[in-house]
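Entry type: protein chain
Record version: 2
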Amino acid sequence: MNDLGALQQRLGWQFVNVGLLQRALTHRSFSADHNERLEFLGDAVLTLAASTLLFQRLGTSDEGDLTRVRAHLVREENLHRLGLVLELHSVLRLSEGEARGGGAARASILADTVEALIGAVYVDGGFDAAMALVQRLLGADIDGSAPERFTKDAKTALQEWLQARRLPVPGYRIVAARGPAHAQTFEVECEVPSLSLSARGEGQSRRAAEQQAAQRVLDRLEASDKPGGPLRA
């Protein structure tokens, strides 16, 4: 099976027009027939599909809670994670320069490609097909979503978690800044020395990278509160 066939299996959708799939995987550095129009469409379809699923599954949540959970689900960090799960790095069409610069691993490119794929499925098979894809990609996240978790940003939630246990607040440091000044990607480490715990995050701004790193630390700390969790405060 070729790479596109394997990707279609991972997506759970066989394209009638395979050209749409190829376009969805094409970065603007590779060709004038790139994926940005499909990305534009996919962003709107993703928002509607995620909103519909949240409306159906979180029946007791109010508008504010639904909005916060949706923002978490469709944010770049989560779409980047889905891009890794789909192994998009192996099928992206990038210029040689973009590929040498690590474009296949760049969070923004993978996230944009996920949206373009959703747009491509919508054009190829209609909303029901795109809805089914979003459900496959986000269903587990939605079923595990606790709306109250998203009422605060990750840095605030992490700080409050630590303070409630009389532990020092975390520290943040920039590990790396990549790319030209107008389009830098930051890598930031969040560290909790009192628990010998750290995690790294990446984003198009220092703040976004800090939020991602804080969320990863918070995820591990919250898991430690469950029976059998690996950490103890």
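Comment: The first strand starts at residue 171 and ends at 178.
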